[in-house]
Amino acid sequence: MGLLGSEERPRDIILGTLDDLINLARSRSMWPLTFGIACCAIEMMATWDPKVDADRFGMFFRNTPRQADVMIVSGTVNKKLAKRLRRLYDQMAEPKWVISMGACANQGGPFRQGYSVVEGVDKIVPVDVYIPGCPPRPEALLQALLLLRDKIADRELRYKRPREIPTDYDVMAEPGKDGRLPVL
Amino acid sequence: MELRMKQERLFDEDVYTVHPEDYRALCEKLKAEGYDFPRAISSVDMGYGLRVVLHLTRMSDLAKVEVRTDVPYDDPVVDSVTDLWPGVEWHEREAYDLMGIRFRGHPDLRRLLLEEHWEIHPLQKRYDTGGYPLPDWQPKDWPDPAPWEEPPPPEEPEEKAEGGEGE
Predict the structure, then answer these.
(1) pTM above 0.80, yes or no
(2) Do A80 and B115 touch (CB under 8 A)?
(3) A126 touches chain B (CB under 8 A)
(4) Is B20 domain-assigned?
(5) Does residue B166 belong to any structural domain of this protein?
């Protein structure tokens, strides 16, 4: 933010850019989507419990993707879920961010190379913050949310997300089949 | 009618190994005996064929039985028992989905867990963990005697020469 009040300026005037103002609003009201997949979702719920209390940073779960800003992928993404997850992501309004929580969402975890598991949610949607752990502690998720908050606060308003969202639907195909699935 | 089956006792369960054509008849008999609770249907890839294991319990005295039947790979069909115990419907669908066992007479035999357009049954041993066919997989020979037949009585071991072995 710009100059606070000084001797020359009245104390109730703050100078800043529009970027700062909008990013301040965005980064202080990150609303995650109510979307839990597996055991990481238990830790995600614990992050909003009184002990860690992510509410104090202005984060509240929204029950519809149209009102959500952040998708927390908390668990194993299998091929059947991948299409639904991608559809939820497409329904979220820009700007939107994705947090990959835990080993399964990062790269498949213990189920990697299974016949039904997508090896990393970044093959489906672009990911902003990865959290290691199996499952990560609530403090780790909170740190990721704060990292994402800083990332949002640093962004320019003119910034557009590069549209290189992965569209390689082969990761969801049946093993042994070359054909691509029909686009959603 | 004489059922082609073998009965044995395994821990606290009676285990019936039955010919697949007599599986349904045995299940009707067990239903008449009061076995009213199907705990699960499990399926096993035996290497020579697929095995269906039906776990039943009688809630009045908690007696437990297992019904096993083996079917070959190229024609893995057994009769459905969904009309006897409606609770097994999804168990049979799961066994069809993951192991490829067809249940004749099932009201709605669709895939339960995997995508409906998939063709593989990934828990079979002919696939690796990623669901890809193993190139050098071969089925084993069907066992003789068949699993539902009593094994022949062990032959009396011939008298061995003293001090022949075990020194």
Answers:
(1) no
(2) yes
(3) no
(4) yes
(5) no
